[in-house]
Amino acid sequence: AQAAQDCLPWHLYGSPMDALPEAGAVYPRTVFPLPEGVPAGWKGIEKEYGPNSKSAGRVYCRYYSLDGKYKHVCTLKQVIKTDCEDKGIDWEPVWDEYQRILKEREAREAELRTAERESRGQLAGDRREAAVKKFHDRFGALVGPVVFCFAGWTTRWTYQPNCSQVRVEYIDPNGQSFLLLKDLECLFQTQLDNGTGDYLEKLIRDAKALADSEVFAQGSKKARETGGVYEAVGTEAVADGGEGRVLTREDRAALATKRQVYRGGRDKGSHSKRARLVLGTEGLEQTGWAALGSPDDEKQAIVYFRRFLGERGFKSDVELLLLNGVAAEQKYARRLRGVYYRMGELVAGQPCYQKLLHSQKRGGKVGCDSIYLTWNGGHMKWEVTTALRETRPVVACSAALGEVGPVSKAAGPWKVQDGNGDFFEDAGLTIVEAGVE
What is the rounded distance in angstroms from the CA atom of residue 244 to the CA atom of residue 249? Predict the structure, then answer.
């Protein structure tokens, strides 16, 4: 079936014209089904502009009727007009209805983006000021010497020669950076309001007890003296007299290059370049059975996804895999866990799988996450990646195999990345084939 070659990105519900390539996508690729409101019987094909085009590096989409009658239609408006004229009906009401559906979808997606930002404490306007005031009423305003002494945090001072100023940056244990203390206060108050900030009372109390303005001021002084960057862990510097480290501008350039090299998941001497992993920990929220909270949920997910794919032309026995058992403390546990379907094309000569998603917030739509299970022939192992290219970020990997074998039989234990390029074994991670009911 034609759809057996399809991938199912979220943007299939409204593919933009002349867009940037999607991370991990392989072009040309089929877009099917088309957005809600477009007549049935059509598909899109996304292609990249050639290297000599003024639009090189971007993607465009053309539309084709499934019966082969119409080809190379440029826009969805032309699709609707052509389809309606072919059926002998007025096209404008159909176009108006599509526009209405499109606006409703965009409004829902805007709400989701706002909710996601707010969950990270990124409030705006009066709500931001109210959150900061509420935090001040309880803890007082945060100051540099106190945040410097937060347990597990790193403070970085960067000399800026253009303005002869020193920028101070506060980095939490997960690597999230804050330049403004007000941003941090807003985040902390958001956590308190949603019930995840119980740890803050002790964090702030202990830091206030350690705070030393003179030690904190040494950071700015050392950044100026070196004309580069100085960073330190405050609890070590104040309580134990520990020294931070100084990075000159040359050191910083070398460090930036070094960070482009994938550092984990291989034995010494077998390193290869890997792209830096940039991946959110939550992804699109999965609720109900799609969250895979129980064996019954897993069975329901398999049945639902198999039926959905079948309705779109995939074979009834399309291969589905269930990845589960990832330890909850793993940073990317939610992004890894899920049902993966076998894509139509081979990658590195082996099957490749992509994670399926289902979301009630998007009207019960099914789509794909940019998470892939694919074979690495150079290192003879299966990997979970966010891209299908030679230089790619790796989220997790199996142990090395002596020969090619199914991913469900891959040697363990799997290793999962912590977000900083280091990998840790996860004995619970399993990948099993989902049988046909």
Answer: 16
Contact 219, 201 (CB under 8 A): no
The confidence score (pLDDT) of residue 274 equals 54
Give the rounded percent of residues in the chain with a pLDDT score beyond 90: 31
Runs of H (alpha helix) within 153-293: 181-193, 200-210, 213-226, 234-239, 249-258
pLDDT of amino acid 34: 86
Confidence band for 105, pLDDT divided at 50, 70 and 90:
confident
pLDDT in tens, 371-408: 899 988 877 889 999 887 777 889 999 987 767 788 88
At what angle are helices 181-193 and 125-139 packed, to 10 degrees?
Answer: 80
Identify the pLDDT of residue 8: 40
What whole-number distance in Å separates Cα of residue 50 and Cα of residue 338?
36
> What is the C-alpha separation between 82 and 91, in angstroms, rounded?
8
Instruction: Look at the alpha carbons of 4, 9, 14, 17 in this order and tell me if their dihedral is positive or negative.
Output: negative
Cα angle value 282/416/20 (rounded, 5°): 55
Tokens read off for 380: 């003879």
Distance (Å, whole) CA 31 – CA 43: 6
Q: What is the DSSP letter of 271?
A: -
User: 313-342 in b/e burial notation, b at 16+ Cβ within 10 A?
Assistant: ebeeebbbbbbbbbeeebbbbbbbbbbbbb
Count CA atoms within 13 Å of residue 131 on its CB side. 25
